[in-house]
Design goal:
Blueprint: H1 3-23, H2 32-52, H3 64-94
Helix pairs in contact: 1-2, 1-3, 2-3
Amino acid sequence: MTPTGIITAIIVGAIIGLLGRLLVPGKQPIGALLTILVGIVSAFIGTWLAHQLHIPTATKGVDWMELLVQVVVAALGVALVAGVTGRRRTGALRR
């Protein structure tokens, strides 16, 4: 992967992670770096899932349906990570 591709993946991952985080109600106890990581992973999983669902992923311009799948996957990822890290932090405070 080229340096430009890495930078693009980080930027797109950050945007997808933030959009996914906006869809999850309440406060999520995860930081910006974890949100970006969830967004990057969600971008790859969302593209794969869109391809499996026969959603066009190689069109001219923005692939809105693929982006929607990526954001929904990111929202699920943020909720999952926030739930796991939230329980871990809450459990540590109760001791």
